[in-house]
Amino acid sequence: MSAAAAMALQPSENRKSARRPIRVALDVIVLRSGVPENLPGRCLDLSEGGVGAMVAGELSAGQQVALELRLPDVAFPLRARALVRYQGKLRCGFEFVGLPREQQEMIYFWAHRLSPRPVRSVRSEDTSMLATISDSGMVSRPGFVSRFRGLFLVAGVLLLLGVAAAGYWRWQHSWHELETDVYAAQEMPLRVPAETMEKRIISKAEPVYPEQARQAGTQGLAVLDTIIGEDGSVEQVHAISGDTLLVKAAADAVRQWKFEPYQFSGRPARVETTIAVEFELN
Asked: 67 pairs with which residues across the strands?
């Protein structure tokens, strides 16, 4: 590993905002050769600028991904584009890209509500009644503090609901673009080598040698580009090379073939492969 690559894996210490500890599930979506892959993970810390997490998969610094997680007690999921800033021993650091301010404020409010600034209690010098001194040094009575906290909580809840609603509707447009890219990639069949799919043939129909081609002494290979569905049936057949009569006979036969479904990430997948049918005169 080069020195530059090693440096890229080190977490940055120049963070613009403090990260707070959090333990929630995290979904990471990454495109590999145009194919989306979902990597499960778990958040370790969170701020308005990014996420630290444990991810069950390999990523590289500078790689763009999509993240989805749910903050405790927040109705809407947090969905964001992010860049991988570092990875080491399954631990990753992600920096948000284009996160709307509404969602940044939602994260900020959640973090500070979850971890309020500490307060300490002392006895006021001029009274026996217990007073509270905040970090700013201001002294207040317990009753006043309780009322103030109640008003702050109500205002905070209203603010959170407003911010969450506005952020949800504003973020939908950006997230829709990412989902469009992911779903488009999902609709594309996986390219699988011919020898791999040949081993997964369950049943095959032998092609009928065209009589016209037999009389003309035509023989050789008919090469077909074939798309096989998730259930193992042949969906599409396109000619690549070969005599027209031989290609037609080969395509008619291949359409009746049946394959064992190809598995990708634990699920059946559509695949594209090349099938060659040989015609030989005895």
From this structure: 28, 80
> Tell me: the pLDDT tens digits for 102-120?
777 777 777 776 544 433 4
Contacting residues for 115 by C-beta, under 8 A, at least 6 apart: 20
Which CATH number among 3.40.718.10, 2.40.10.220, 3.40.50.2300, 3.65.10.10 corresponds to the domain 16-99?
2.40.10.220
Does the predicted TM-score (pTM) go above 0.70?
Answer: no
Q: Does domain 190-279 have CATH number 3.30.2420.10?
A: yes
| Cα distance between residue 162 and residue 112, in whole Å | 17
pLDDT score of 186 more than 60: no
Residues whose CB falls within 8 Å of the CB of residue 235, separated by 6 or more in sequence, listed in order: 227, 228, 229, 270
**Helix, strand or coil for residue 46?**
strand
- What is the predicted pLDDT for the residue at 118? 38
